[in-house]
Amino acid sequence: MLLLIAVTLALYLPGFTSLPPMDRDEPRFAQASKQMLETGDFVDIRYQGEARNKKPVGIYWVQASAVALGEKLGVPDALKTIWLYRLPSLLGAITAVLGTYWTALALTSRRTSLLAALLFASTILITVEAHLAKTDAVLLATVTVAMGSLVRLYFASRRGATRVSLVHPALFWTAIGVGILVKGPITPMVVAFAVIVLCVKDRAVRWLAILRPGIGLLWVVVLVLPWLGLILLRTKGAFLADSVGHDMFGKVAGVQESHGAPPGTYLAAFWVTAWPMAPFAAIAAWGVWRARRDPAIAFLLAWLIPTWLLFEIVPTKLPHYVLPVYPAIAILTALVLDGGVSPRARSRVAFIAVLILLGILPLALVAVLVGGRGYLWSDLPVGTLLAGIPVVLLLGGCVIWSARNIREGAFARAATGAVAAAILLNLFVLGRVLTPSVSDMLAVSGRLAQAGAAAIEPGCRSPTFATSGDHEPSLVFLTGTNLLLTTPQLAASFLKEGDCRGAFVESGGEQEFTAALGTRPDVHLAQRVVGTSINGGGRLDIGVYVRQRDRP
Prior knowledge:
alpha/beta; D-Maltodextrin-Binding Protein, domain 2; 3 domains; five-stranded mixed beta sheet; two-stranded antiparallel ribbon; 22 helices; globular; Glycosyltransferase family 39 protein; pentosyltransferase activity; transmembrane; cell membrane; membrane
């Protein structure tokens, strides 16, 4: 357990405090949590003046609690410190890894369980979610706790037990209740799909009594209903209409927010999002199919297949939607690999593993280092470029180690090489390359907020800002809740209305802005900020205009 915690910290801490707010979802969540602390209203969820009714309140509560604790501990400018809002995601990711290990322990040995947890912990997708202040890592923690409890209750019923300790039913239903508060129906949906498949497979439903469904459902209601009742009263029912009617059913019925993709997209993306677990899963796939009638394998397939198929069918697709089934894939992979793979299969897939791990990853890193100028950074520090050379070589060494051990059937050793490669990659890319000090072109919002604050006269105690062209949530989060999102003409009017004001004006609207502003000697261009939009990769060139205090 301590080993897993140490590995997860090595995987997830690089870049955790240094990465800027990543548009758009992360700063939207963080800003809504910040407004709860600013207003003292912990029922209504708002992004500036707009009701944010897409997700329940759970993630905002835990984020606000983390920031409040940070304030009490003396963290400077805690309300605008993004890593405090990320703490629940970090803890959720660690809990999900430990939950994967705990779930696997009900099915196999400690060695195999450790292999499963390591494979899952090192995947790119959970690493990304551990670094983002949003719902998915915490949601995944609830899924793994629920499924870890379910597997113990299910196999207890198969052994003929009719009554068990209350611990596992309590964990099961608590995880479902917390999951609902975090992301609505996803946790109960994953669990329900697995339960339905198991009931159909076994042609039995009587085993469900061991879950204590009566008192369990009542407990879920106790957890969820108080806040749900308050928000329904506050919004006059609009919360359900927006979250269920618009957000959930909208994604099922059609494409939302330009995130449409055909069926099969998640399978194609798996080779990237599940790196370095993906090649191991490919090796194990045939063995999983051959052993599909084994009770342990069948349970994991019941967890995996229905949820995966649903998300493949749903038109709206984002990589993290299938994250709740990644622990099942990791455990399936470990179960088969630790049971042994034929020499022929090992030799055949060794080349594939080398191609995927050795060829693509270091080449991609080299491409980023060579081609990132003008997109990621204005000038790449020589030290970072030189550090990239041994990193690429070490990555190659880790991958060769893994490939050789795969060929020999030593999959636990191969996994250690893959995890080492993931740690090395995270240390260099997240802990160095993508930090604002290196990838300055990505840190546009932070640079704008700093430039605006620096340009305002020291005597202005409560400066206010408007922005035209760049309306990213990260700018709202870092500048302030009262940031006015407007047009070039109205930004000029905003500056005319009072002193101690600033405006961020994107170059495409500057001509309209200056025409509307007219001759104003008290307004001047303090700085230009050039960079790349995190959301979409577009080029940004923004002028920072300020109006100083009127002189007598």
